Input
Amino acid sequence: MAVSSVRVPGKVNLALCVAPRRADGYHELVTVFQAVSLHEEITALARQDAEIGLQMTGEGSEELPCDQSNLAVRAARLLRERYSRPDLGVDLRVRKQVPMAGGMAGGSADAAGVLLACSQAWQLGAGSSELSGIAAELGSDVPFLLFGGNAVGTGRGERLRAMPALGRLEWVFALAPRGLSTPSVYQRFDELVERGVLVPNTELSKRSLDALCSGDAAQVAPELRNDLQPAALELYPELAATLEAGLFAGALAAVLCGSGPTCAFLCTDADQADRLAAALATAPEVRGTRRAHGPVPGPEVL
Ligand code: C5P
Output
């Protein structure tokens, strides 16, 4: 029986520039993704029947349904549908490290890993352009998780251009006790635009882009940007104190991950990041901290 295991990183957005809502409900983005060293490990074990089973362990897994609503199961179903192979079944095992519902694309990483592991376990011979097409149907962030490194995402975030993956940035991530729903953060963004509080502008200068991809923390820090942050802070005001606590404790810069609520802190070096992670762990609205670095490569076959 064929089996395949892969590990897939999570992500942070170094820049997330958001345009007004499109007619299809999505927002046009210009975003700079960076893959970071918190990984999901996905194993696909081909079955003799057509069942798709899922077991999850690790970060937040006890709160996740393992039924057809799970993006990992949807990824396996969509893959076999696209290859007209409803007969294929699989047992999926996912070991999670990326915070759940935190804006770091853990669910998207699971979906990306399932596409890769299943295409191997089922011996479909899927190429990377086929997989990224299916990935984009599953979610805006899924194609980047097949990609890794640093990349600029446009469209919904699914159209990617690789950027140099220079240097090594040291990150601390502060996890929040509750999640934030991505659609409600985007909806609040729309309301802020309607109220005239935010003026959407997706311009990202070449100078900013070069700085963000330089791998030099001092150059990256002033350019970090997340247009969803004001909306997320309205929905979860305590996050402002978390961001401030990290800056007070010495982070070079603080930014919300994606639609939040995980807060990312950029540090000068690994020692400082270790100290910051320890200091922030006791802050009031912090459930825990994680250390990571980036950029890291995309999926690795284990
Ligand atoms: O693509 P994905 O399923 O991850 O998106 C989740 C939700 O986030 C969408 O339903 C939409 O409300 C919002 N979204 C958006 N614009 C994007 C990406 C996501 O409005 N570019």
Observations:
- The chain has two domains: 3-163, 169-294.
- The radius of gyration is 19 Å.
